[in-house]
Amino acid sequence: MDHITRRSFLKRGACLGGGVLLSQSPLSGLAQSRLQAPPASEMKPDLVAVKGKDPYVNTLRAIQELGGIETFMRRGDRVGVLVNSPFKNIGASVNPDVALAVIEKCLEGGAKEIRYLKDPHRGYWERSPKSGELATVLKALKYESGDHVKVEIPGGLILKDARVLKELWDCDVFINISITKHHQGVLYSGALKNMMGLCSFLTNSYFHLGTLKLGWFADLDHLSQCIADLNLIRKPDLCISDATTFLTEKGPYGPGKLAVAETVVASTNGVSLDAFCCRFLGLQPEDVLMIGKASRHGLGEMKHDRIRIKSLSV
Amino acid sequence: MILLILLSWCIVSFSPIFSQAEEPRPKESLLHLLPLESDLKGWKLDGEPQTAEGIRLFELINGGAEEYVKEGFSRAVMATYRNNEGKRINLDIYEMLSPESAKSIYRKKTGEKGQKISVGEEAAMEDYYLNFRKGTYQVTLSGYDTQRETLEWLLRLARLVAERISASP
After folding, report:
1. Domain extent for A108
2. What's the predicted TM-score (pTM) here?
Protein backbone atom coordinates (compact mmCIF):
# COMPACT_ATOMS: atom_id res chain seq x y z
CA MET A 1 0.00 0.00 0.00
CA ASP A 2 1.25 3.42 -0.88
CA HIS A 3 0.80 4.98 2.54
CA ILE A 4 1.38 8.68 2.83
CA THR A 5 5.06 9.16 3.40
CA ARG A 6 7.15 12.06 4.50
CA ARG A 7 8.58 12.28 1.02
CA SER A 8 5.23 12.43 -0.74
CA PHE A 9 3.97 15.17 1.52
CA LEU A 10 7.11 17.19 1.33
CA LYS A 11 6.80 16.97 -2.44
CA ARG A 12 3.32 18.34 -2.25
CA GLY A 13 4.41 21.10 0.04
CA ALA A 14 2.14 19.67 2.64
CA CYS A 15 4.50 19.93 5.56
CA LEU A 16 3.99 23.35 7.07
CA GLY A 17 5.52 24.40 10.32
CA GLY A 18 4.62 21.01 11.72
CA GLY A 19 7.17 19.32 9.54
CA VAL A 20 9.83 20.42 11.95
CA LEU A 21 12.25 17.60 12.41
CA LEU A 22 13.61 17.04 15.83
CA SER A 23 17.15 17.43 14.64
CA GLN A 24 16.31 20.91 13.41
CA SER A 25 14.22 21.97 16.36
CA PRO A 26 15.34 24.63 18.80
CA LEU A 27 15.22 21.94 21.46
CA SER A 28 17.73 19.65 19.84
CA GLY A 29 20.71 21.77 20.74
CA LEU A 30 19.39 22.19 24.24
CA ALA A 31 18.81 18.47 24.59
CA GLN A 32 22.27 17.61 23.36
CA SER A 33 24.04 20.17 25.49
CA ARG A 34 22.23 18.98 28.58
CA LEU A 35 23.08 15.38 27.86
CA GLN A 36 26.74 16.28 27.56
CA ALA A 37 26.85 17.37 31.18
CA PRO A 38 28.28 14.43 33.16
CA PRO A 39 25.89 14.54 36.16
CA ALA A 40 22.79 14.64 33.95
CA SER A 41 23.90 11.66 31.89
CA GLU A 42 23.83 9.48 35.00
CA MET A 43 20.23 10.35 35.71
CA LYS A 44 17.13 9.19 33.91
CA PRO A 45 15.71 11.82 31.59
CA ASP A 46 12.37 13.49 32.31
CA LEU A 47 11.48 13.47 28.64
CA VAL A 48 12.63 11.31 25.75
CA ALA A 49 12.10 11.92 22.03
CA VAL A 50 12.84 8.97 19.76
CA LYS A 51 12.98 9.46 16.00
CA GLY A 52 12.81 6.54 13.59
CA LYS A 53 10.84 4.93 10.79
CA ASP A 54 8.90 2.47 12.97
CA PRO A 55 6.50 3.99 15.54
CA TYR A 56 6.36 0.69 17.41
CA VAL A 57 10.13 0.54 17.84
CA ASN A 58 10.27 4.24 18.74
CA THR A 59 7.73 3.70 21.49
CA LEU A 60 9.50 0.69 22.98
CA ARG A 61 12.76 2.62 23.03
CA ALA A 62 11.18 5.68 24.61
CA ILE A 63 9.78 3.57 27.47
CA GLN A 64 13.14 1.87 27.89
CA GLU A 65 14.94 5.22 28.09
CA LEU A 66 12.63 6.33 30.89
CA GLY A 67 13.66 3.30 32.89
CA GLY A 68 11.48 0.55 31.45
CA ILE A 69 7.82 -0.23 32.07
CA GLU A 70 8.67 -1.59 35.53
CA THR A 71 9.43 2.00 36.53
CA PHE A 72 5.75 2.79 36.17
CA MET A 73 3.96 -0.40 37.19
CA ARG A 74 4.23 -3.52 39.35
CA ARG A 75 3.14 -7.05 38.53
CA GLY A 76 -0.58 -7.50 39.17
CA ASP A 77 -1.43 -3.85 38.60
CA ARG A 78 -4.54 -2.75 36.78
CA VAL A 79 -3.46 -0.39 34.00
CA GLY A 80 -5.67 2.20 32.35
CA VAL A 81 -4.63 3.51 28.94
CA LEU A 82 -6.25 6.64 27.53
CA VAL A 83 -5.49 6.60 23.81
CA ASN A 84 -6.61 9.40 21.52
CA SER A 85 -8.10 7.08 18.91
CA PRO A 86 -11.75 7.99 18.24
CA PHE A 87 -11.00 9.82 14.97
CA LYS A 88 -10.88 7.84 11.75
CA ASN A 89 -8.96 10.37 9.65
CA ILE A 90 -5.24 9.84 9.23
CA GLY A 91 -3.10 12.01 11.51
CA ALA A 92 -6.04 12.58 13.86
CA SER A 93 -5.65 9.46 16.01
CA VAL A 94 -2.60 7.88 17.62
CA ASN A 95 -0.86 5.46 15.30
CA PRO A 96 -2.14 2.07 16.56
CA ASP A 97 1.42 0.71 16.64
CA VAL A 98 2.26 3.24 19.37
CA ALA A 99 -0.66 2.07 21.50
CA LEU A 100 0.13 -1.59 20.78
CA ALA A 101 3.73 -1.15 21.94
CA VAL A 102 2.62 0.34 25.26
CA ILE A 103 -0.03 -2.32 25.83
CA GLU A 104 2.37 -5.13 24.99
CA LYS A 105 4.95 -3.77 27.45
CA CYS A 106 2.31 -3.55 30.18
CA LEU A 107 1.36 -7.18 29.60
CA GLU A 108 5.01 -8.17 29.68
CA GLY A 109 5.32 -6.24 32.93
CA GLY A 110 2.62 -8.41 34.46
CA ALA A 111 -0.45 -6.19 34.21
CA LYS A 112 -3.44 -7.96 35.70
CA GLU A 113 -5.82 -6.04 33.50
CA ILE A 114 -5.62 -3.34 30.85
CA ARG A 115 -8.51 -0.96 30.53
CA TYR A 116 -8.88 0.98 27.29
CA LEU A 117 -10.44 4.16 28.67
CA LYS A 118 -11.85 5.65 25.46
CA ASP A 119 -13.17 3.41 22.72
CA PRO A 120 -11.28 3.59 19.42
CA HIS A 121 -12.99 4.22 16.11
CA ARG A 122 -14.17 1.22 14.15
CA GLY A 123 -11.34 -0.40 12.21
CA TYR A 124 -8.66 1.32 14.30
CA TRP A 125 -6.61 -1.76 15.11
CA GLU A 126 -6.83 -3.04 11.54
CA ARG A 127 -4.85 0.01 10.47
CA SER A 128 -1.83 -1.58 12.14
CA PRO A 129 0.17 -4.19 10.21
CA LYS A 130 1.04 -5.63 13.63
CA SER A 131 -2.55 -6.20 14.74
CA GLY A 132 -2.50 -9.78 13.41
CA GLU A 133 0.62 -10.91 15.21
CA LEU A 134 -0.46 -9.05 18.36
CA ALA A 135 -4.00 -10.44 18.36
CA THR A 136 -3.52 -11.89 21.84
CA VAL A 137 -2.54 -8.45 23.09
CA LEU A 138 -5.74 -6.97 21.70
CA LYS A 139 -7.84 -9.73 23.20
CA ALA A 140 -6.54 -8.81 26.64
CA LEU A 141 -8.06 -5.32 26.46
CA LYS A 142 -11.18 -4.37 28.35
CA TYR A 143 -13.08 -1.46 26.88
CA GLU A 144 -14.86 1.41 28.61
CA SER A 145 -18.21 0.90 30.33
CA GLY A 146 -19.50 4.35 29.46
CA ASP A 147 -20.35 4.92 33.13
CA HIS A 148 -19.21 8.25 34.53
CA VAL A 149 -18.97 9.38 38.15
CA LYS A 150 -18.95 12.91 39.55
CA VAL A 151 -15.54 14.07 40.72
CA GLU A 152 -15.02 17.21 42.78
CA ILE A 153 -12.14 19.46 41.68
CA PRO A 154 -11.48 21.76 44.65
CA GLY A 155 -8.43 23.34 43.01
CA GLY A 156 -10.22 24.07 39.74
CA LEU A 157 -10.53 27.75 38.90
CA ILE A 158 -13.58 27.28 36.67
CA LEU A 159 -14.29 23.57 36.63
CA LYS A 160 -15.34 22.62 40.12
CA ASP A 161 -16.55 19.14 39.24
CA ALA A 162 -16.64 16.82 36.27
CA ARG A 163 -18.23 13.54 35.29
CA VAL A 164 -15.34 11.20 34.59
CA LEU A 165 -15.16 7.59 33.43
CA LYS A 166 -15.61 5.32 36.44
CA GLU A 167 -12.83 2.91 35.47
CA LEU A 168 -10.15 5.59 35.87
CA TRP A 169 -10.43 5.08 39.62
CA ASP A 170 -10.12 1.31 39.36
CA CYS A 171 -6.68 1.59 37.77
CA ASP A 172 -3.44 1.41 39.73
CA VAL A 173 -1.53 2.90 36.82
CA PHE A 174 -2.73 5.51 34.36
CA ILE A 175 -1.05 5.99 30.97
CA ASN A 176 -1.99 8.90 28.71
CA ILE A 177 -1.25 8.25 25.00
CA SER A 178 -1.96 11.30 22.86
CA ILE A 179 -1.24 12.41 19.33
CA THR A 180 0.51 15.70 18.67
CA LYS A 181 -1.83 17.56 16.30
CA HIS A 182 -3.47 20.78 15.35
CA HIS A 183 -6.68 21.94 17.01
CA GLN A 184 -8.73 24.71 15.44
CA GLY A 185 -9.71 26.13 18.80
CA VAL A 186 -6.85 25.73 21.24
CA LEU A 187 -4.24 25.44 18.43
CA TYR A 188 -2.64 22.27 19.78
CA SER A 189 -3.93 18.96 21.08
CA GLY A 190 -1.78 16.60 23.13
CA ALA A 191 -1.68 15.01 26.57
CA LEU A 192 -3.57 17.70 28.50
CA LYS A 193 -6.37 17.91 25.94
CA ASN A 194 -6.59 14.13 25.71
CA MET A 195 -7.98 14.06 29.26
CA MET A 196 -11.31 15.26 27.84
CA GLY A 197 -11.63 11.73 26.48
CA LEU A 198 -12.41 10.61 30.02
CA CYS A 199 -15.35 12.96 30.45
CA SER A 200 -19.05 12.63 29.82
CA PHE A 201 -20.79 14.38 26.95
CA LEU A 202 -22.34 16.94 29.33
CA THR A 203 -19.02 17.82 30.94
CA ASN A 204 -17.33 18.28 27.57
CA SER A 205 -20.28 20.39 26.38
CA TYR A 206 -19.64 22.71 29.31
CA PHE A 207 -16.00 23.02 28.22
CA HIS A 208 -17.07 24.09 24.73
CA LEU A 209 -20.22 26.07 25.37
CA GLY A 210 -20.32 26.84 29.09
CA THR A 211 -20.01 30.62 28.98
CA LEU A 212 -22.82 30.95 26.45
CA LYS A 213 -20.62 32.95 24.13
CA LEU A 214 -21.49 32.23 20.53
CA GLY A 215 -19.05 32.21 17.67
CA TRP A 216 -16.03 30.36 16.42
CA PHE A 217 -14.48 28.82 19.54
CA ALA A 218 -15.81 31.92 21.26
CA ASP A 219 -14.22 31.47 24.67
CA LEU A 220 -10.84 29.83 24.39
CA ASP A 221 -9.79 31.02 27.81
CA HIS A 222 -12.71 29.12 29.33
CA LEU A 223 -11.99 25.97 27.33
CA SER A 224 -8.28 26.13 28.15
CA GLN A 225 -8.90 26.71 31.86
CA CYS A 226 -11.38 23.81 31.98
CA ILE A 227 -8.75 21.53 30.43
CA ALA A 228 -6.12 22.67 32.93
CA ASP A 229 -8.58 22.20 35.82
CA LEU A 230 -9.57 18.75 34.59
CA ASN A 231 -5.94 17.65 34.68
CA LEU A 232 -6.01 18.11 38.47
CA ILE A 233 -8.13 14.99 38.90
CA ARG A 234 -5.27 12.57 38.30
CA LYS A 235 -1.76 12.94 36.96
CA PRO A 236 -0.77 10.18 34.54
CA ASP A 237 2.08 7.89 35.57
CA LEU A 238 3.36 7.92 32.01
CA CYS A 239 2.58 10.18 29.04
CA ILE A 240 3.38 9.30 25.45
CA SER A 241 2.74 11.43 22.40
CA ASP A 242 2.72 10.23 18.83
CA ALA A 243 4.43 12.79 16.60
CA THR A 244 4.95 10.43 13.68
CA THR A 245 2.25 11.59 11.24
CA PHE A 246 -0.17 14.29 12.35
CA LEU A 247 -2.59 17.01 11.26
CA THR A 248 -1.14 20.48 10.92
CA GLU A 249 -4.54 22.00 10.07
CA LYS A 250 -8.25 21.25 10.46
CA GLY A 251 -7.72 19.40 13.70
CA PRO A 252 -8.84 17.74 15.80
CA TYR A 253 -10.93 15.74 13.33
CA GLY A 254 -9.49 16.44 9.89
CA PRO A 255 -8.93 15.57 7.16
CA GLY A 256 -6.25 18.16 6.53
CA LYS A 257 -2.61 18.69 5.69
CA LEU A 258 -0.23 16.28 7.38
CA ALA A 259 3.31 16.51 8.65
CA VAL A 260 5.62 13.58 9.27
CA ALA A 261 8.21 13.90 12.04
CA GLU A 262 8.68 10.16 12.73
CA THR A 263 9.02 10.84 16.45
CA VAL A 264 7.51 9.38 19.61
CA VAL A 265 7.89 11.43 22.79
CA ALA A 266 7.54 10.08 26.32
CA SER A 267 7.59 11.76 29.71
CA THR A 268 6.31 11.33 33.20
CA ASN A 269 4.71 14.75 32.94
CA GLY A 270 1.95 15.92 30.59
CA VAL A 271 2.76 19.63 30.84
CA SER A 272 6.40 19.13 29.89
CA LEU A 273 5.39 16.73 27.13
CA ASP A 274 2.95 19.22 25.58
CA ALA A 275 5.41 22.09 25.98
CA PHE A 276 7.89 20.03 23.99
CA CYS A 277 5.52 18.63 21.36
CA CYS A 278 3.72 21.85 20.45
CA ARG A 279 6.92 22.86 18.68
CA PHE A 280 6.23 20.22 16.04
CA LEU A 281 3.40 22.54 15.00
CA GLY A 282 5.62 25.59 15.05
CA LEU A 283 4.15 26.79 18.36
CA GLN A 284 5.82 27.94 21.55
CA PRO A 285 4.42 26.64 24.86
CA GLU A 286 3.27 30.17 25.68
CA ASP A 287 1.08 30.15 22.54
CA VAL A 288 -1.02 27.31 23.94
CA LEU A 289 -3.12 28.68 26.78
CA MET A 290 -3.81 25.36 28.49
CA ILE A 291 -0.10 24.60 28.93
CA GLY A 292 0.56 27.77 30.93
CA LYS A 293 -2.63 27.32 32.93
CA ALA A 294 -1.75 23.72 33.80
CA SER A 295 1.78 24.76 34.74
CA ARG A 296 0.40 27.45 37.05
CA HIS A 297 -1.65 24.72 38.73
CA GLY A 298 1.68 23.13 39.62
CA LEU A 299 1.06 20.22 37.27
CA GLY A 300 4.41 20.39 35.54
CA GLU A 301 7.29 22.32 34.12
CA MET A 302 6.90 24.05 30.76
CA LYS A 303 10.42 25.50 30.62
CA HIS A 304 12.77 23.03 29.04
CA ASP A 305 15.92 24.34 30.64
CA ARG A 306 14.53 22.97 33.90
CA ILE A 307 14.02 19.36 32.80
CA ARG A 308 16.28 16.63 31.48
CA ILE A 309 15.58 15.96 27.81
CA LYS A 310 17.07 13.19 25.74
CA SER A 311 16.59 12.95 22.00
CA LEU A 312 17.87 10.10 19.88
CA SER A 313 17.37 8.32 16.57
CA VAL A 314 16.85 4.60 16.07
CA MET B 1 -23.41 23.81 35.40
CA ILE B 2 -26.08 21.60 33.80
CA LEU B 3 -28.41 24.59 33.49
CA LEU B 4 -25.68 26.50 31.67
CA ILE B 5 -25.09 23.60 29.32
CA LEU B 6 -28.79 23.24 28.49
CA LEU B 7 -29.14 26.96 27.91
CA SER B 8 -26.13 27.06 25.64
CA TRP B 9 -27.35 24.00 23.78
CA CYS B 10 -30.71 25.70 23.09
CA ILE B 11 -29.07 28.92 21.94
CA VAL B 12 -26.53 27.25 19.69
CA SER B 13 -28.94 24.71 18.28
CA PHE B 14 -31.90 26.93 17.58
CA SER B 15 -30.60 30.42 16.92
CA PRO B 16 -29.88 29.74 13.23
CA ILE B 17 -33.41 28.39 12.83
CA PHE B 18 -34.97 31.48 14.39
CA SER B 19 -32.80 33.84 12.42
CA GLN B 20 -33.60 32.23 9.10
CA ALA B 21 -37.26 31.50 9.88
CA GLU B 22 -37.23 28.30 7.82
CA GLU B 23 -40.18 26.00 7.53
CA PRO B 24 -39.51 22.76 9.37
CA ARG B 25 -38.84 19.94 6.94
CA PRO B 26 -40.01 16.40 7.33
CA LYS B 27 -37.15 14.25 8.57
CA GLU B 28 -36.25 11.54 6.11
CA SER B 29 -33.33 9.35 6.99
CA LEU B 30 -30.02 10.43 5.49
CA LEU B 31 -29.10 6.80 4.90
CA HIS B 32 -30.64 6.98 1.43
CA LEU B 33 -27.77 9.28 0.42
CA LEU B 34 -25.20 6.52 0.86
CA PRO B 35 -24.09 4.86 -2.38
CA LEU B 36 -25.32 1.32 -2.75
CA GLU B 37 -22.83 -1.53 -2.69
CA SER B 38 -24.26 -2.66 -6.01
CA ASP B 39 -22.96 0.58 -7.54
CA LEU B 40 -19.47 0.02 -6.12
CA LYS B 41 -17.55 -2.81 -7.67
CA GLY B 42 -15.63 -4.59 -4.94
CA TRP B 43 -16.48 -2.10 -2.17
CA LYS B 44 -18.75 -2.78 0.78
CA LEU B 45 -19.93 -0.89 3.83
CA ASP B 46 -17.54 -1.51 6.70
CA GLY B 47 -19.94 -1.81 9.62
CA GLU B 48 -23.16 0.07 10.22
CA PRO B 49 -23.25 3.76 9.27
CA GLN B 50 -23.40 6.17 12.20
CA THR B 51 -25.79 9.10 12.48
CA ALA B 52 -26.06 12.20 14.66
CA GLU B 53 -28.46 15.11 15.07
CA GLY B 54 -27.78 18.57 16.50
CA ILE B 55 -25.30 18.82 19.31
CA ARG B 56 -24.99 15.04 19.43
CA LEU B 57 -22.46 15.45 16.64
CA PHE B 58 -19.93 15.95 19.45
CA GLU B 59 -20.37 12.28 20.32
CA LEU B 60 -19.25 11.26 16.83
CA ILE B 61 -16.44 13.69 16.08
CA ASN B 62 -15.74 15.32 19.44
CA GLY B 63 -14.12 18.75 19.08
CA GLY B 64 -14.53 18.57 15.30
CA ALA B 65 -18.24 19.21 15.85
CA GLU B 66 -17.80 22.75 17.12
CA GLU B 67 -17.43 24.35 13.70
CA TYR B 68 -20.45 22.50 12.34
CA VAL B 69 -22.74 23.25 15.26
CA LYS B 70 -21.88 26.92 15.21
CA GLU B 71 -22.41 27.21 11.45
CA GLY B 72 -25.90 25.73 11.70
CA PHE B 73 -25.76 21.95 11.69
CA SER B 74 -28.81 19.74 11.34
CA ARG B 75 -27.68 16.11 11.12
CA ALA B 76 -25.10 13.78 9.63
CA VAL B 77 -24.49 10.27 8.44
CA MET B 78 -21.02 8.72 8.41
CA ALA B 79 -19.94 5.51 6.77
CA THR B 80 -16.78 3.70 5.83
CA TYR B 81 -16.43 1.61 2.69
CA ARG B 82 -13.87 -1.14 2.37
CA ASN B 83 -12.67 -3.03 -0.69
CA ASN B 84 -11.42 -6.59 -1.05
CA GLU B 85 -7.82 -5.50 -0.47
CA GLY B 86 -8.66 -3.90 2.87
CA LYS B 87 -8.42 -0.34 1.58
CA ARG B 88 -10.88 2.03 3.25
CA ILE B 89 -12.65 5.24 2.31
CA ASN B 90 -14.54 7.35 4.85
CA LEU B 91 -17.68 9.21 3.85
CA ASP B 92 -19.19 11.97 6.02
CA ILE B 93 -22.40 13.65 4.87
CA TYR B 94 -23.46 16.74 6.82
CA GLU B 95 -26.89 18.28 6.38
CA MET B 96 -26.75 21.92 7.36
CA LEU B 97 -29.68 24.22 8.14
CA SER B 98 -29.36 26.20 4.92
CA PRO B 99 -27.33 26.29 1.69
CA GLU B 100 -25.49 29.29 3.16
CA SER B 101 -24.46 27.21 6.17
CA ALA B 102 -23.26 24.45 3.85
CA LYS B 103 -21.27 26.96 1.81
CA SER B 104 -19.73 28.46 4.91
CA ILE B 105 -18.62 25.14 6.36
CA TYR B 106 -17.35 24.04 2.95
CA ARG B 107 -15.12 27.13 2.88
CA LYS B 108 -13.69 26.14 6.26
CA LYS B 109 -13.11 22.53 5.25
CA THR B 110 -11.34 23.26 1.98
CA GLY B 111 -8.02 24.92 1.42
CA GLU B 112 -6.99 27.31 -1.28
CA LYS B 113 -4.61 24.79 -2.80
CA GLY B 114 -7.17 22.09 -3.54
CA GLN B 115 -7.76 20.96 -7.10
CA LYS B 116 -11.18 22.14 -8.25
CA ILE B 117 -13.26 19.29 -9.59
CA SER B 118 -16.74 18.87 -10.96
CA VAL B 119 -18.96 17.44 -8.22
CA GLY B 120 -22.11 19.07 -6.84
CA GLU B 121 -22.04 22.87 -6.79
CA GLU B 122 -18.42 23.18 -5.68
CA ALA B 123 -15.73 20.62 -4.95
CA ALA B 124 -12.02 20.29 -4.29
CA MET B 125 -9.60 17.37 -4.07
CA GLU B 126 -6.60 17.70 -1.73
CA ASP B 127 -3.87 15.11 -1.18
CA TYR B 128 -5.96 12.22 0.18
CA TYR B 129 -9.41 13.76 0.63
CA LEU B 130 -12.24 15.45 -1.20
CA ASN B 131 -14.86 17.99 -0.12
CA PHE B 132 -17.96 19.09 -1.98
CA ARG B 133 -21.21 20.88 -1.30
CA LYS B 134 -24.62 20.70 -2.86
CA GLY B 135 -27.75 22.43 -1.56
CA THR B 136 -27.80 22.11 2.21
CA TYR B 137 -25.17 19.38 2.21
CA GLN B 138 -21.43 19.45 2.78
CA VAL B 139 -19.70 16.14 2.14
CA THR B 140 -16.19 14.95 2.99
CA LEU B 141 -14.53 11.79 1.69
CA SER B 142 -11.09 10.67 2.82
CA GLY B 143 -8.72 7.82 2.16
CA TYR B 144 -5.52 6.63 3.82
CA ASP B 145 -3.09 7.03 0.95
CA THR B 146 -2.52 9.05 -2.20
CA GLN B 147 -2.66 6.21 -4.71
CA ARG B 148 -4.34 7.04 -7.96
CA GLU B 149 -6.88 4.26 -7.44
CA THR B 150 -7.88 5.73 -4.07
CA LEU B 151 -8.34 9.20 -5.49
CA GLU B 152 -10.41 7.82 -8.37
CA TRP B 153 -12.70 6.05 -5.92
CA LEU B 154 -13.03 9.19 -3.81
CA LEU B 155 -14.26 10.96 -6.92
CA ARG B 156 -16.55 8.14 -7.98
CA LEU B 157 -18.14 7.88 -4.54
CA ALA B 158 -18.55 11.66 -4.35
CA ARG B 159 -20.39 11.75 -7.65
CA LEU B 160 -22.71 8.96 -6.55
CA VAL B 161 -23.57 10.88 -3.38
CA ALA B 162 -24.09 14.10 -5.32
CA GLU B 163 -26.56 12.31 -7.62
CA ARG B 164 -28.51 11.19 -4.58
CA ILE B 165 -28.75 14.65 -3.07
CA SER B 166 -31.77 16.58 -4.15
CA ALA B 167 -30.77 19.90 -5.68
CA SER B 168 -33.30 21.85 -3.59
CA PRO B 169 -33.26 21.86 0.22
Report:
1. 18-250+266-313
2. 0.86
